[in-house]
Amino acid sequence: VNAPAGSTAPAELVHINGRDATQVSALDRGLHYGEGLFETIACTHGTPRLLELHLKRLGRGCARLGFTPPPVEELAAEVHAFAAPRERAVVKLIVTRGVAQARGYARGKDETVTRITLRYPWPAEDATLAHKGVRVRIGALRLGENPALAGLKHCNRLEQVLARAEWSDPAIAEALLYSSSGALVSGTMSNVFLVLDSKLVTPRLHRCGVAGVMRELLLTLAPGAGIAAEERDLTAADLARASEIFLTNALIGIRPVRELGGHTLAVGGVTRALQALVAPRLNLSSTPAAGGRR
Amino acid sequence: VNAPAGSTAPAELVHINGRDATQVSALDRGLHYGEGLFETIACTHGTPRLLELHLKRLGRGCARLGFTPPPVEELAAEVHAFAAPRERAVVKLIVTRGVAQARGYARGKDETVTRITLRYPWPAEDATLAHKGVRVRIGALRLGENPALAGLKHCNRLEQVLARAEWSDPAIAEALLYSSSGALVSGTMSNVFLVLDSKLVTPRLHRCGVAGVMRELLLTLAPGAGIAAEERDLTAADLARASEIFLTNALIGIRPVRELGGHTLAVGGVTRALQALVAPRLNLSSTPAAGGRR
Q: Who's near A77: CB < 8 A, 6+ residues apart?
């Protein structure tokens, strides 16, 4: 444990640029502007899950924000080393623009990225949620739309923080959010999929939202299992008529929504089929209920 | 100089929570989510300018983001101490949500804000710009709209960083930005005022943008000098028919726009009158040309 003295923060291991450390420069542009990207990587049986997808997304994000990314081999080796000693853990990787060379928004020519790697304990949670589903609310906050940032898992996350602060009932797992123009986007920390007319659909993320790795995996795998899947502009009306709804992220995998804004939903066959389909990729046995087993 | 070794960063003095320090916890929510607010305070003749407006805005921002703000007297004393030894300097104050107690967007109950105070040298700049005006472009990036964040000087600034990265010509001082729905908002680091039909107008900032302290000062002072001033929804058509345009922020005061997107503008009488009006508040003599004098 090398968290800063006096904090109750739960990270149990932190590296900065590959070295054991707990602090970053007060001049880092990640701190001043949220100018960074992150990945939250689920690790099970000592191994990071979907690491290739995480590192590819990080690389794409670096390209879009104009960062020179850290070497992929180095990142992969570090994440593997963080994962190895634990049966289950969460490894968070943050890459910022680095220490500012001057005050102000303009970037310097010689800034080099700061890499922060943190290991957290696996979240304590009801192991049966993957089977029985979760209760979800509709968020009041509407996400701003900016194609330049859409899809990225960047560090400008005040909207998600404010949306998450709208409720404190622990029985509610997530809130679904619309954008300023009324498009359905995602949860605060998950992507959302609907089954509409027997087809699997998820919101297009060209104006806002984070393109999650589990979302990507599902869009890739579903057609091979005979389930047509597509990204689409979706609205509240689509949400209301969906026959199945589920959430995805790297940690929870696929989690059925059994109640949305007070209305009960059945956990359906498409959701179950997809849970079985991705289980091998998540180092889970193929029965969904085992997804939360310790 | 206590900037981290190996960096070329220009801050010449840094305090964290009132103590001489250069680094912050890698678990700070300011770093993870940009969950913070900042103030950029111009200091001249050893004294911070418009400090009361800065600290009031910071307090309002803390209230909106749900932070318990640091004591105002403590902040004021620290900024005064930072300003005192220098003829001119820029003091930046950052207040973040503090060190995270857990991973994820949900806030802990006992997080205490982190306060970072930095002193930078006054920017090197052509001293005649306040008199002769600046050249400005129209930015391609459009700002996302979110009323929950509008007006705040928060640390989610990727949009401004990307907009500033659109040009590198040092002869261009600023870019004016529209929002996703086409409303004129501001520059990347300044507010904008237009003279329309002999009236002073500036964009309403209810959907996005930072409500600057110089903007606030002008809206307060102008009517007393016989200049009607109002916040209004503005578009590209308003910009095209403006008889005068100027930019404001805490450092530059009022800076006339003499060229916008290749079109020449005259520096007009309203701009000059307002420069003279605010000069005493900025510790400047009343002739605008003296605004940049060393």
A: none
Give the mutation candidate from A13, A23, A119 for the B interface (greatest B CB count, under 10 A): A23
What would the two tokens of residue A168 be?
Answer: 């404190």
Q: How far apart are CA A102 and CA B254, in angstroms?
A: 23
Q: Which two tokens stand for residue B53?
A: 């407006």
Tokens matching residue B222: 């102008």
Reading the block at residue B66, the tokens are: 């749900």
ipTM over 0.90 threshold: yes
Q: Please answer yes or no on whether B161 and A116 come within 8 Å at the CB atom.
A: no
User: Per the structure block, which two tokens stand in for A19?
Assistant: 């070295």
Tens-digit pLDDT string for chain A (294 aa): 333 333 334 899 999 999 999 999 999 999 999 999 999 999 999 999 999 999 999 999 999 999 999 999 999 999 999 999 999 999 999 999 999 999 999 999 889 999 999 999 999 888 899 999 999 999 999 999 999 999 999 999 999 999 999 999 999 999 999 999 999 999 999 999 999 999 999 999 999 999 999 999 999 999 999 999 999 999 999 999 999 999 999 999 999 999 999 999 999 999 999 999 999 988 775 444 433 433
In this structure, the number of other CB atoms found within 10 A of the CB of residue A52 comes to: 11
Say how far apart CA A176 and CA A156 lie, in whole Å.
19
d(CA A227, CA A200): 7
Run of H or E residues at B132: helix B129-132
**Which of B96, B102, B161 has the CB atom closest to A33's CB atom?**
B161
Q: How many angstroms from the chain centroid is the CA of residue B194?
A: 18
Q: Write the DSSP assignment of A260-273 as a string of letters.
A: ETTEE----HHHHH
pTM, whole model, 2 decimals?
0.94
Amino acid at A100: A
d(CA A22, CA A57): 26
Contacts of A154 (CB under 8 A, 6+ apart): A34, A36, A37, A38, A61, A65, B158
- Residue B31 has its nearest CB partner, among A31, A105, A107, at A31
Contact residues on chain B for A4, CB-CB shorter than 8 A: 25, 27, 99
- In a 13 Å sphere around the CA of B112, the CA atoms on its Cβ side amount to 7
Asked whether A245 and A260 are in contact (CB, 8 A), the reply is: yes
